[in-house]
Design goal:
Layout lengths: L7 E4 L5 H11 L3 E6 L14 E3 L5 E5 H4 L5 E5 L5 H12 L3 E4 L13 H5 L6 E6 L14 H7 L24 H24 L3 E6 H7 L2 H10 L16 E5 L4 E5 L3 H10 L4 H4 L6 H6 L1 H12 L4 H10 L4 E3 L3 H6 L1 H5 L3 E6 L3 E6 L23 H9 L3 H9 L4
Parallel strand pairs: 1-2, 1-6, 2-5, 6-7, 7-8
Antiparallel strand pairs: 3-4, 9-10, 10-11, 12-13
Helix pairs in contact: 1-6, 6-7
Length: 406
């Protein structure tokens, strides 16, 4: 029984930010009811390849994208554009603690499924909306996409090789960080609202914005601009304040070296047989190394190219110089630390036989997370939910299905 096993979430969200939030709550034990469109479902069900393969090696209809954000949920199909479908959602909301949605601003009000409408009959409801730009402001009605928000929120202006370097250009992150961070912040906000409700009996509305979140997670970069007025710039994998603190090429790959003080710098160059660099007065302190980075870094790159990635990691770990490899995902999941932490999980699935998932990183000693259910097949739990929560009999459910409501 997870810490949130007493909580029910009605999840009207799709794609990434909302489902990521709901999956966090589900991993912590919440009963998450995922509402999907009849016949189609969440768009990410179709975002492939890759699709999960069955025991015979044949691709199934389960996309890798969908399964990474929808474990531990039950799926019900409901057409919310129809009055009978809207009534089902209202009844399910009345039996839920939390409603989560990521529709465009004002869309659910047309169906009487917005916070103001649902809170009239359930005042203690916690209702979280996730949009690109929030519920207010001149951009509120614009659609929000992670890629665009990474650009608008400043992330891409400091990500990518520095101007003047071959291949220089603004770069997005390799994953949808604005969506994922918004889902994480939404999870925290919802849990805070649950605590407030438990103390006061009051529900509340939560307005989450991808753009707000993207700017917030720029952390010290945003703070540096506000403090100095100087616009941060791209430095590739280098640090603006520490040298050497970046990636370096080896004879067979790349490593990361994070030498944060003068002693670690000396140990680094000594391991490469170039201790004279630490004795050079131009590189004897970090401020001097930052000042002369353009002449020092090529010397360090020439040094690191002389040994393999594995050799460098071994030497630097012995010398207590912070370092690490840049792993591909085969190397990630073969890593002994990753294996020992049981990050890869194999679970049974009714459509594929089994599938591999990434475990939740939240490790609680008293109420541990667990994968109780695989990502649901479309509408897999429709009858179960309608019977349990709304007390509908098989004939009533069959009638709804015949009308295309579920």
């Amino acid at each position: 029984m997870g810490a949130l096993s007493h909580i029910r979430v009605l999840d009207l969200s799709r794609v990434l930010a909302g489902p990521w939030c709901a999956q966090n709550l589900a991993d912590l034990g919440a009963d998450v009811i995922k509402v999907e469109r009849p016949g189609a479902g969440d768009d990410t069900r179709h975002w492939g390849p890759p699709f999960v393969k069955d025991a015979q090696g044949q691709e199934t209809a389960e996309s890798a994208y969908f399964i990474c954000i929808n474990r531990n949920k039950r799926s019900i199909t409901v057409d919310i554009s129809k009055p009978e479908g809207q009534d089902i959602i209202r009844q399910l909301a009345a039996e839920s603690d939390i409603v989560l949605e990521n529709y465009k601003v004002g869309d659910l009000a047309k169906y009487g499924l917005d916070y103001a409408s649902l809170a009239q009959f359930k005042p203690d409801l916690i209702y979280c909306s996730i949009t690109g730009f929030g519920q207010t402001g001149p951009y509120a009605h614009r659609p929000g996409y992670d890629f665009i928000v990474q650009g608008m929120g400043g992330f891409m202006s400091v990500t990518g090789e520095a101007d003047g370097v071959d291949g220089s250009s603004p770069q997005k992150a390799g994953v949808a960080i604005a969506d994922i961070f918004t889902g994480m912040y939404a999870s925290t906000a919802i849990l805070a609202a649950v605590v407030h409700r438990d103390q006061t009996g009051e529900g509340q509305y939560i307005d989450m914005s991808l753009l707000d979140t993207q700017i917030a997670v720029m952390a010290n970069v945003a703070s540096a601009y506000l403090s100095s007025g100087e616009v941060p710039r791209r430095l590739g994998n280098a640090s603006s304040t520490i040298v050497p603190y970046q990636t370096f090429p080896t004879s067979d790959g790349w490593i990361i070296v994070a030498a944060g003080n003068d002693g670690q710098f000396r140990h680094f160059v000594s391991a490469g047989g170039e201790e004279h660099l630490a004795d050079n007065p131009r590189y004897s302190s970090n401020p001097l190394r930052v000042q002369h980075r353009h002449e020092l870094v090529p010397l360090l790159e020439a040094m690191t190219r002389k040994k393999t990635k594995a050799k460098w990691i071994s030497l630097l770990e012995q010398a207590k110089v912070p370092c690490g490899p840049i792993n591909n995902f085969k190397e990630v999941f073969e890593n002994e630390q990753v294996i020992s932490r049981k990050i890869e999980q194999d679970i049974a699935h009714p459509g594929t036989g089994s599938m591999k998932l990434v475990a939740s990183p939240m490790k609680l000693s008293k109420t541990p997370t667990e994968i109780r259910m695989p990502p649901p097949m479309l509408g897999q739990h429709t009858d179960e939910i309608l019977q349990e929560q709304l007390k509908l009999d098989p004939a009533a459910i069959a009638s709804l299905r015949q009308k295309g409501i579920v």
